[in-house]
Fold these 2 entries.
Entry 1:
Amino acid sequence: SGYITLDSGYKNTGATKSAITFLDGEEGILRYRGYPIEQLAEKSTFLEVAYLLIYGELPTKKQLEDVAYAISRHTLIHEDMKKFFDGYPSKTHPMGQLASLVCSLSSFYPESLNPNPTKEETELTMLKLVAKMPTIVSWIFKKAIGHPLMYPQNKFDYVSNFLYMTFGHRTEEYKMDPVLVDAMNKLLILHADHEQNCSTSTVRMVGSSDCNLYASVAAGITALWGPLHGGANQAVIEMLETIKNDGGDVDKWVAKAKDKNDPFRLMGFGHRVYKNFDPRAKIIKKTCDDVLAKLGINDPVLGIAKRLEEVALNDEYFISRKLYPNVDFYSGIIYRAMGFPTDMFTVLFALGRLPGWIAQWKEMRENNEPIGRPRQVYTGEIAREYVSMENR
Ligand code: CMC
């Protein structure tokens, strides 16, 4: 079979060509379609960024209005899907539900199932997925806390509608808080794409077998769940809480993270590609200070996070390995201040990453990429004769 190059974890193997996201890990640069992440986070809305990622250009006013209107026509999910929410035990992790529900959309919207979809079918599926995701996410939340589900109100913009369905109540007028809308937009933008990370590569891999978009994205959601990837935002808060309850001795926990005989790692630290700093973490740290100040919240774990960062950044172990805070380090503190429970954090990451997954799936299909099928270096037994049961 010829010579196979082994690269476990694809540390140095390009799996595709892509024109969506540029990332320079040495310089700490991240750009979507050429636009710096700093400018997008400051000036645009999440829906604008979603359009940019999926279609390649920032939308004109008319294009954005048209897409927002089209999305507003699809924000409901099929009423029968409510039965799924009733079927889960109340303590189910939201990520498992989200993956199953997104995969199930393929059953309710079968135009997605054509293995060679027309442009119109693909457009419709992309639109439906973007439109229905906030409804699914907020309904998972509502079910978990035992509150009645809130139906979308299309007078709201995309992010506001999500916040309304999540934090609104049937019994009172919902007061939209511009601080939350702004913070949510920023966080979703910062998570919107990150080139060939584990979940995105999964979406492309699954999609490469001509699998439909819903199922491909469901696979991405599953990949994102793990604590080494998107699940790190939940793991960070749990770690900070543990450190707080242990007396707040940051040096002790940094020592544990350095100890090779201890499986503990500093969650929210380190990145496969960033070896200077994570530009998203810089923006999120500042946003965290702003949002907590504006909401008048004093979260003791923020102080622990800052001390942990300071100690680690001055420690030879972290310096020599170029380990810096990543996107997940401060994001959970903001989510918590906004009112989200810890186990919803990774779901919010998924909501943000959705346009990236869609853009990457679309790009792969348009470029007619071949099915993903890595090779291996076989290390097992070469050839053996079958041994009958009585002789084993
Ligand atoms: N704490 C302590 N040591 C670490 C950490 C950490 N967080 N991250 C890496 N190291 C050490 C690691 O032990 C290794 O040391 P040595 O060379 O002595 O064996 C060295 O640094 C290189 O690490 P690696 O595991 O080979 O690097 P990787 O590129 O395979 O892994 C990573 C990247 C993000 C999985 C890893 O840094 C990690 O586990 N971080 C904690 C989890 C986390 O925050 N994940 C979120 C990533 S960013 C957003 C996202 O993708 O969702």
Entry 2:
Amino acid sequence: MSNESLANLLKEERRFEPPTELAAAANVTADAYERARADRLGFWAEQARRLDWATEPTETLDWSNPPFAKWFQDGELNVAHNCVDRHVQAGHGDRVAIHFEGEPGDSRTITYADLQREVSRAANALTELGVRAGDRVAIYLPMIPEAVFAMLACARLGAPHSVVFGGFSADALATRIQDAQARVVITSDGGYRKGGASPLKPAVDEALTRPGTEDVRSVVVVRRTGQDVDWTEGRDVWWHELVDRQSEEHTPQAFGAEQPLFILYTSGTTGKPKGILHTSGGYLTQAAYTHHAVFDLKPESDVFWCTADIGWVTGHSYIVYGPLANGATQVMYEGTPDSPHKGRWWEIAEKYGVTIFYTAPTAIRACMKWGDDIPAKYDLSALRILGSVGEPINPEAWVWYREHIGGGRTPVVDTWWQTETGSIMISPLPGVTATKPGSAQVPLPGIAATVVDDEAREVPDGSGGYLVLTEPWPSMLRTIWGDDQRYLDTYWARFENRYFAGDGAKKDDDGDIWLLGRVDDVMLVSGHNISTTEVESALVSHPSVAEAAVVGAADPQTTQSICAFVILRGTAAESEGLVDELRAHVAQQLGPIAKPKRVLAVAELPKTRSGKIMRRLLRDIAEDRQLGDVTTLTDPSVMGLIQEKLPSAP
Ligand code: WT7
């Protein structure tokens, strides 16, 4: 990004110091940065000691064949033992591991002792089905406790799981089963979503008719909704019939630290999904450390709630592996935030006294749109830390989150990471960092990240470029499943010896990092690079705008011109006057070069199921093209709604 345009970029002057009490008792203090800088590998070796190893590792990192890392490779451990059994052995069997809340209002309390029994039974069941260490198991479940039991049962057996998000189609499921050559699929009849029972089993039946899925010999079906299911004798088996009759005892075997733990597919924008491979010792070390550090978790008193689905990496690292390795008590919720009413999340937070809450900007903006009065009806005074993940959070949404959910008291930690990084990489520390709305700020202790220009030169403070990671980290992906070459090409070819994250970023005058969105989302207007994120944040800072998505549309005069799609707040109505006002507002915030050429008010924005705006489709609209593939949208009909708006465009 050129420096002249940067000089105009959004200035964020607000700072929030850590609350004194929190800082005084924080798990991690400022000296951690210094210690980690002085001896990075020593720092990670120290963090690995949070885990219970059957054989202590003597070697921290083997980087003799970069970028193929081996962490703690001569150590041996069992991941499920670390997440379950050791807490029971330490006398915490009665501690609640999971407060489960179903969408219809049913609930279940699962202690660590319960979890040990459930996971052991499930591990015995998988063993009976012939699952052995190294075999892949596909998990296609709603957000119910069996999803956690199934993942940990696989971990216990050293059988890598591949969790496929329950909202994905039979096609997506089939591709993932084929690529991982799964032997078993664990699913359910269905799950509750938006007030109704939605089926899952039919998608499995359909996926298994596709060529390349023949390795699947068993389908284990959890009964959740009671809806009718088709049955294939000899292949299908009910979870309750198989698992409930198993022994509650299972002795976990220790595996090498580099034993594959899971494969998780990321769709990316092009090509077939990438099977991101994570292994055991390094992954668990960093998942546990970051959960301890970023959320300041106190296992005896905190109630943690991460709203992600288990089908995303956030659910893997901050529902299953990080919190359970740390012996946390957490909430797990099956449904959507607005079912049966828009205060559902806050009702649950009040019910369980949630102290730490972790969600995505898209959800925060939806809550903003629904109105301040909704969270105001609930007692959220137990909350002490709020987290954000998944995309850049607009400063206005950040401030709203802190004010209306955090009661103006709680630090907000904006955590940057990826499926590939396995755990959080860049984030404030709640007891240390004076936070800045909209910035993920600083790499965590032990993490090395910076911003470089096209020639791989580190940019000075106050400049922008590409985010890179300059040293290996314990929970890094080890490769793309079955495709080492693609691993090299995607992440390690752009800059020598540096991991290319694919995100644009800038360093502000204090050296803090701001994420600017995927590099494919940066616009080029009259020779200036302008980030979609910053124009969107400028729009959202106007009182009439709840949400905004910005794209660059081909333009004969200026290469690209800025086209903005906005969702208006509450009572604001679209008018020519408002459109002019919004354009002027952006010009005033960011400079005239960033002024959108067009502003269209729409009712919805096209989002992927993980809540990311599909700018590619908006670009199709802005450039008046036939729409590309819409199959990964949460709701493909929103594109029709948006297209109807077009005649009113200037
Ligand atoms: C991409 C990774 C990490 C779990 C959820 C997403 C974007 C993620 C932030 C943040 C700005 C962010 C990046 C990243 N992203 N967190 N705090 N600020 N951008 O995992 O699906 O692998 O997506 O999400 O663009 O590269 P993912």
